Give the backbone structure.
Amino acid sequence: MVSLPYDEAGVNGESLTSFLRNRNKVGTSGREYLIRMLQVAERSKVKGYEVAEELVGTGQRRRGGKIVDCGSYLHFRHYVGLDDCRLLRANFCREYKLCVLCGARRGGRLVSSYLERMSEVLGSRANLRLWNLTLTVRDGPDLVERFSVLENAFGVLLDRSRDYRKKGRGASAFNVVHGGVRSFEVKRGKGSGVWHPHVHALLLVDGELDRERLLREWALLVGQDEGSTYAAHTNRGHGFKFCGPVGLRPRRGEVDASVIGAFLECFKYCVKFGDMPAMDIVSAWRVLRFRRLVQSWGVLWGVEVPDIADEALEGDYEWMDLFFRWCRGEYRLFEVDSSGTSESA
């Protein structure tokens, strides 16, 4: 792993850490965001070289080149008075199923967008409650077959729920689900060493989700025993802390850590970049490249996810731009611009 040059030459021989601290312009919050994003980008560059080599070996030379170039320059803007740091520009490859950096940025956008939309819906519909659900299928060596079983089975649950909402008929544990969002994830099973696809879902439920009924229904859909699935829900007293008497409503704009954890679990990388060798990442991509891994429905349908680059703030704020370039195996700060305001940007 390449280490970040926090105490090596940054600008005019001054280290990055010293530059940020001595200028008193980037506060603790801004500095932590900046360093965290540089660390993610660094991991992406290191893994990206391995993934690109695998892609080139399978004839995907152009896509491999995009992975190698991704994150080679990063443009951060820090708003001095607000201690708000943002990644405004970068040469993103946007290969979310192959790239650590773009996958992480995409996951963050999904979390913020759906958390905002979820809060709006729950604040206006007191009868709904949030459930966090994970469903699995038995591990297997054939990812195409295992993923198809998982995708088709969950699709049947959604079809049954829609039929009940529109036609008032059909028996399913999902009849009480008024909407939600699901995300497929693929990794190697810890014990089996073969493919372990599963689906995370955040559901808006009117009443109670019958766990035992769902397990029986899922077992029939995927052709296996009930013990390989599980469901967990958030209730009053844990999970969503900003809840009303029955439903879940924002209170003082605070979000409980366990709620953030549920959203992060749902929208993290579709493949486990850190745990998988490049060969497995590319193999998973060949299966998943045309698959829709994140889908919303019902009262959560239509959520717009913004671009993975941050937006500049509007207004008259003093800002400082920091430009980083990937050079000889590390990120180096090569230019600083602190002469502008947001209105002149």
Summary: The chain has a mean pLDDT of 81. Residues 28-57 form the longest helix (30 residues). The CA atoms of residues 137 and 223 lie 9 Å apart.
